[in-house]
User: Which sequence fits this backbone?
């Protein structure tokens, strides 16, 4: 099995580099025939680039680049922007069945709880996750935790995607997000978006639900080209917070059922 990994990274100090090393070791062990595209956030120390080069020398297929300072956003956003740009500009044929998204979670907060969780339950469950996605043609993307967004402006997100890419609008936007920005998308769906992706997606600060430079764009808004194209999200559990309950107590399952009918 082969595919693509898009990774947004930020390492401002040496004491957090072990998280990047943990990630690269999982790639080496579980994804060694995947292509890895790494966007490196502004103000990352040079030691991270040196580590990446060592893994390149040991056989991992890695393309990386630093984010332009003018595109800086205080989150994973600009790193993902850069990683997708690197993939878009790679002249090689895109291979595989899946695109995995992840980032250096926990670096700025100096915590390891979610990092450890993802190493085990996201990156560490490649076969399980890809098998789940393959089990139904309706499934388009996967995240471990989903959260329902009761006050999400669906029309705004649809308009944003019509600005960024040429999409066949088969369905309305589903009001959800994959918490913490770790998710997997089927490659053939991702390619439909990528093939029509406008250059402004890479050249300017991202515009999201909350405006220019929206730090939650990839966690909350990016994934919706999948449901616009008519594919369902799958997940393990609803996020452990209260935001998934709307004023009418509709769960994400209710919202998905309604989306299917329309």
Assistant:
């Amino acid at each position: 099995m082969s595919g693509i990994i898009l990774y947004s990274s930020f390492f401002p100090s040496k004491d957090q580099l072990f998280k990047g090393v943990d990630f690269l070791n999982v790639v080496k062990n579980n994804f060694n025939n995947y292509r890895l595209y790494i966007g490196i956030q502004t103000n990352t120390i040079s030691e991270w680039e040196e580590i990446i080069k060592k893994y390149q020398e040991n056989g991992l297929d890695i393309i990386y680049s630093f984010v332009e300072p003018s595109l800086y956003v205080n989150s994973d956003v600009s790193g993902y922007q850069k990683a997708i740009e690197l993939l878009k500009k790679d002249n090689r044929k895109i291979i595989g069945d899946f695109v995995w998204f992840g980032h250096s979670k926990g670096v700025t907060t100096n915590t390891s709880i979610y990092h450890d969780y993802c190493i085990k339950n996201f990156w560490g469950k490649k076969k399980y996750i890809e098998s789940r996605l393959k089990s139904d043609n309706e499934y388009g993307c996967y995240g471990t935790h989903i959260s329902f967004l009761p006050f999400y402006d669906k029309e705004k997100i649809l308009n944003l995607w019509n600005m960024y890419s040429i999409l066949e609008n088969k369905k309305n936007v589903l009001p959800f997000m994959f918490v913490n920005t770790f998710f997997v998308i089927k490659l053939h769906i991702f390619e439909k978006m990528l093939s029509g992706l406008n250059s402004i997606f890479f050249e300017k600060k991202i515009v999201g639900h909350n405006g220019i430079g929206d730090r939650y764009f990839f966690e909350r808004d990016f994934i919706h080209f999948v449901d616009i194209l008519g594919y369902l999200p799958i997940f393990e559990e609803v996020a452990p917070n209260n935001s998934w309950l709307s004023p009418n107590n509709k769960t994400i399952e209710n919202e998905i059922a309604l989306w299917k009918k329309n």
About this structure: The mean pLDDT is 91. The first helix runs from residue 17 to 30. The first strand starts at residue 3 and ends at 9. The radius of gyration is 17 Å.
